[in-house]
Design goal:
This protein is an alpha/beta fold. Helices cover about 35% and strands about 15% of the residues. The protein has two domains: about 1-55 and about 300-390, Aspartate Aminotransferase, domain 1; about 55-295, 3-Layer(aba) Sandwich (Aspartate Aminotransferase, domain 2). The structure holds pyridoxal-5'-phosphate. It comes from Pustulibacterium marinum.
Length: about 400
């Protein structure tokens, strides 16, 4: 299988981790040699309820037996997609009452950017230095890291960047700006939360000049930071919110929400201003609905905050310089890039999954399923500390 994986399946890096997956359940992934891995990454913030949560599996099975794909997005009434959109509207602040379902995070960003352009009649897009919003060409255009996109230019024109948490740069947002796209908590940059009411100030500037604020909730969304959406903690309501990853409970999905007034613009002038075949897929929407219900009806969001405190308490070591982030979106910062690499690889050997952050080499990603138990957190943190002790610089 390993040879075939390397030969026939396209690779994304020269050194894939190559865990040969047999099955996964709860907080654990098992390989074909019978080794178990405690998962502190959750498929990169995607498996909100752990692996194969029974309610998600049941929703998928039940829907599969009724119908799967029947028609392109938006033509037929398919109850899982309708119920999901309605439940989201009931739990988002006004005016975010209408949701467009797509297939991935980057597509949610593409739709959001198009909506901002369509709603304002402007073209300029602004995002942040070190921002990551996905890998299709629109999302890549607003990525705040030139070295990663140079090879793919030309990308979208009329894109500018501001420094996250820097208030001086807000003057770059002008009457020419269609949309300002920010991650509520900057992910790839190192899990940097907004400070000093920054997002509210960005929103105010957007209102002054008639630009739309788009918040990327693809990682913090769906309860990961202790509230359904991260922005609820920062005194701001965006005009458009993009979501993905954790909303599928392990299935591929994305969505963007806005007011009905704005969203209507995508169906008129031009008609079919945004279309997708599989968006709102009934099986995926059923999985997402089951995930959303569980997040809302359980105390997982409150637990995320308690578990954050536990991680911060347990991850104390002179070589750990900080544990950043909110809820279960945490980055353990260490002294050097080499040490971060050592911890991630050593823990893999010990049966604990950790991962890197794209633009912050001294960070170790800790984004476990929200369902992880306190005992599992203690087991994993012990392995991390052990691996640091084994480090010989
Ligand atoms: C903040 C953020 N935005 C967008 C995306 C893109 O999502 P996807 O990989 O589902 O296209 C990601 C994925 O890592 C992300 O972390």
């Amino acid at each position: 299988m390993k040879t075939d994986f390397l030969q026939y399946q396209a690779q994304t890096s020269p050194h894939p981790l190559m865990v040969d997956v047999s099955h996964a359940k709860g907080s654990y992934i098992y390989d074909t040699d019978g080794k178990s891995y405690l998962d502190f990454v959750a498929g990169v913030s995607a498996c909100t309820l752990g692996h194969c949560h029974p309610k998600v599996v049941k929703a998928v099975q039940e829907q599969t037996e009724k119908y799967m794909h029947v028609m392109v997005y938006g033509e037929y009434i398919q109850s899982p997609a309708v119920q999901l959109s309605k439940l989201l509207a009931e739990h988002m602040p006004a005016p975010l009452d209408c949701t467009y379902l797509v297939n991935s995070g980057t597509e949610a960003i593409e739709g959001s950017l198009k909506l901002a352009k369509r709603a304002t009649g402007r073209s300029q897009l602004i995002s942040a230095v070190n921002a990551y919003h996905g890998n299709t060409q629109g999302s890549m255009s607003v990525m705040g890291a030139e070295h990663r996109k140079q090879a793919f230019r030309p990308l979208l024109p009329d894109v500018d960047f501001i420094r996250f948490n820097n208030e001086e740069d807000l003057q770059k947002i002008t009457h020419r700006t269609a949309g300002v796209l920010l991650e509520t908590i900057q992910g790839s940059a190192g899990f940097l939360p907004p400070q000093n009411d920054y997002l509210a100030k960005v929103k105010k500037r957007c209102e002054e000049v008639g630009a739309l604020l788009i918040l990327d909730e693809i990682q913090p969304g769906f309860g990961r930071t202790g509230t359904l959406f991260g922005f609820e903690q920062y005194n701001v309501v965006p005009d458009i919110v993009a979501m993905g990853k954790g909303m599928g409970g392990g299935m591929p999905v994305g969505a963007f929400s806005a007011s009905k007034k704005y969203m209507h613009l995508l169906s008129d002038g031009p008609k079919m201003g945004h279309i997708t075949t599989f968006g709102g897929h009934p099986v995926i929407a059923a999985a997402s609905l089951a995930t959303l219900k569980e997040v809302l009806e359980s105390d997982l969001m409150q637990q995320a905050v308690e578990k954050e405190a536990l991680f911060k308490k347990l991850l104390q070591h002179p070589k750990i310089t900080d544990v950043r982030g909110r809820g279960l979106m945490l980055a353990m910062m260490v002294e050097s890039e080499d040490l971060a690499n050592h911890i991630i690889l050593k823990c893999m050997e010990k049966g604990l999954i950790l991962f890197w952050l794209m633009f912050e080499p001294k960070a170790v990603r800790i984004t476990p399923p929200l369902t992880i138990s306190k005992e599992e957190i203690a087991i994993g943190c012990k392995l991390i500390l052990e691996s640091i002790e084994e480090w010989k610089a």
